[in-house]
Amino acid sequence: MTTFERAAGAGLRRTEGRAKVTGQATYSSEWRMENAAYAWPVTATIARGRIGAMDLDAALAVPEVLAAMEPGASGRLVRGANPETWILQDHEVRFRGQIIGAVVATSPEAAREAASLVRVDYEQHPHQVLLDPDAELETTPTVNAGYPSATDRGDVDAAWDAAPARIAATYSTPAEHTSSLEPYATIARWDGEELTLYNSDQGPAVSAPEFAALFGLPEGGVRVIAEHIGGGFGAKAFPRSIPVLAGLAAKLVRRPVKVAATRRQMFSLAGHRTPTVQHVRLAADAAGALTAVDHEAIMHTSRYGEFIEQTATVGRVMYRTPNLRTAHRVQRVDLPTPGPMRAPGEMPGLFALESAMDELAHELDVDPIELRVRNEPEVEPDSGLPFSSRNLVSCLRDGARRFGWDGRDRTPGVRREGRWLLGTGAAASSFPAFARPSSATALAEPDGTFTVRIAAADIGTGARTALLQLAADELGVPPDRVAVQVGRSAYGPAPFAGGSAGTASWSWAMIKAIRSLRADVDEHGGVVPDGGLTATADTTEDIAGRAELSRHAFGAQFAAVRVDVDSGEVRVDRLLGVFAAGRIVNPRTARSQLLGGMVMGLSIALLEQGEIDPVHGDFVNDDLASYHVAANADVREIEAHWIDEHDDDLNPAGVKGIGEIGTTGTAAAIANAVHHATGTRYRHLPLTIDRIRADGLPGRSA
Hints:
Layout lengths: L16 H5 L15 E7 L5 E7 L1 H4 L4 E5 L22 E2 L5 E7 L2 H9 L2 E6 L26 E3 L2 H7 L2 E9 L11 E7 L2 E6 L4 H11 L7 E4 L15 H13 L3 E4 L2 H7 L6 E9 L5 E13 L21 E10 L12 H19 L3 H7 L17 H12 L12 E2 L2 E13 L6 E6 L5 E4 L9 H13 L6 E4 L16 H22 L9 E6 L1 H5 L7 E13 L5 E11 L6 H20 L5 E2 L4 E2 L15 E8 L18 H4 L1 H13 L10 H7 L7
Parallel strand pairs: 1-12, 10-11, 14-15, 19-20, 23-26
Antiparallel strand pairs: 1-5, 2-4, 2-6, 3-5, 7-15, 8-13, 9-10, 9-12, 13-14, 16-17, 17-22, 18-19, 18-21, 22-23, 24-25
Helix pairs in contact: 8-16, 11-12, 14-16
């Protein structure tokens, strides 16, 4: 094989870009099916109780209706560990918006009309939907990603009592929603006892066996196809109810069935980021060295399921301290089970921790960047493990230089431009560098072309393109001689696209398969025989055999804001981030991911808030007119940079995930900038006009 100029490191355009902008890319609900039907869910209008009776007669009388579905009479499922998939099996109502029935028809319009005619009698029970941090709370052994729920090292209370500088504050974040452009959509088709799901799915190889078990099918009895996905942000990482409804309906009417959720239904069916209440205590000596870090996070989960964000785990990683305590406590409420939303745990956790660090810097009259540098750890503070690489200080220094931080007047509330108060702020970012077991297949053809197959999911991140670049380099051929095929569970075990672990995991298996393939080609004298050659690989043992290290990406984020002295409106003039995230395979798509993450962090800081109605027990702002999401136009200037980081203890490609780290520190940087502008510390997100006006502003007009 001839060696060509390396593809990794070049800003290749997305391989699927033309197909997307010309409408040729096929999304889950767009596959053509002969004789297809459509299902429309009937959803609960109470938050807790039981279904007493369901009148389907009016629905069944609508022309085009094929069937109406009700609990206990629409097909049996085998109960598994995931309660989100357990639908239409009993008469319990666990949250408002729960799927309790459906209508199947030959057009979506008829299905929707008929579903509106279903009448339901309920036995309504009292419900609780608001997080009350003063009520009874539970603890669990672990939180999301398998982290221990609590850690305690040293004597935090004694260090707190002895410290000359201390900060104790409570921070909160609201419920938030993933709001991906493409809602849930599934087509289900049965071929005998085999089920194919064309599903908007972040992990086709992960969900397929779960669906098989749910429908009582043998391993391999369900195929999931997810070639193109219109965003996910965590909402499509694990199986939920829409594909199950499609599968049940298709079996009932013996024809393919399409189900597409509405935007409003997504606010109930897609999960949400839990609200948090966080208590943070920081103690330091006179020089600013932390002597204690105490971080407790309180959040909610549902009564019927459990998802607990790893919010307080950021304190275990970020700063050197001899005394460290972290804890998570949870309250069960009558809402849908929360789920992962971009940067689960790290985003709300770093908002609290990095705001507290800014408060401590102000208390000590120390530059906030310098305070972080003074507390840079040599090993991970909680575990004592060495870092595989850690370049946070380099990010802070480089970011400060690019932002023009040096010489900044630390005095808050004194810079004004007309009616605008001006401020700047900074925060650190972090996200774990995961790699999960995966498999891949590589094929060589006699004509000199190659194909790689892996059950990855490209949710808009550019994963296809990055994998193509790495594959071309490993094969020593130009990218146009390589095809990367993803999005099908039939390609073998592979992790879901989430936790910023996709490319790190998939590329490892792919590179291993390609190296095996190249050895096979060499054994044939460098000539691929008729019929081609195939090699497969699995990384389960490779990942299990890795050295025990603390593996994280790090970053520094800076914000410049202006606050209207009369209205309290916050505008973001500039965001800048510098990141240390291993090898950057494609600068074009990497920059896009980092900028998108920062805009999402801005959205969380200023706009996003799921408003929960305690009477009806539901999110009331359940559309994109009332649940506000930021866009690029909400920041005047935005920059993403990275440092050249080489980490040989990660994976063969040397990559860390970049999808989430751009989000993690942004909200704290903006909140710190707002404090610098106004002189008032805002500890509760989002920083809306009413919240800022309530606390008053310096120099406000009468």
